[in-house]
Design brief:
elongated; mainly alpha; 52% helix; two-stranded antiparallel sheet
Amino acid sequence: MKKIVFVIILFQVLTSCWSEKRNFLGTDIELWEDTEVWNFARCISEGQFEKAEQLILQNHINVDYREPKFGETLLSWAVLNDKEEAVIFLVDHGANPNSHNTYNGVSPIIEAAGGFSSIEILRYLLLHGGNPNDHVNEYETLTHGHSIKTPLIAAAFISLEKTKMLIEAGGDANFAVEPGYTAFCQASLGIKKDVLEYLLLNCKIDFKKTYIVTLDTGDTLHLKELIEKDKVAYQQDSITIKRILAYLDEHFQNAR
């Protein structure tokens, strides 16, 4: 009887460990555990870059090796964990800022634009081949649907500084992977008034290309209507919103 109980407990422990391993997030370096690049991945995570370089030379490491769960590269891990030195090392050794994962097609440049990593990481990726208009293509085979973000669309939700950087790098503010879902739309969803004003007044975007189709009624809502429907969130008494509404009032009729 004791043996049976011991076996059951051992099975539960092993099952628990296996389950925890299966539940790793994209920020966990353990995603590369039990892969051929595990020692290299640990060196990157621990900042042992001299040793990492030796492993590249000795074992011909593929710096864009994908972990098996999300199909992420180590550059994505470094971006998500705000590891600037790791980002620089990987990029300098050939890591691709535009490499799409196999989960939803998001790349390191999109993660850098839309996440909370340093703006210097985004700057470095842009200076070393990062595409400000990178996006997943329809023909890519993914395990969890296709992302509809570009770096600019991702940045517009959280940061005026990153948005400006991407525009200056050639980001197309009028582009949408999915119709209506532009950077301007993302800024409106994040209620980023400074980004809205910048895109509208400084970049002179074509806001006719930005809209949201409601799930319940199927109505097409443009920014002016969104502001009017959510007066509390948009704080219509703010100077920024007043400038935005004045601009929309002037141009809205011709945009319909």
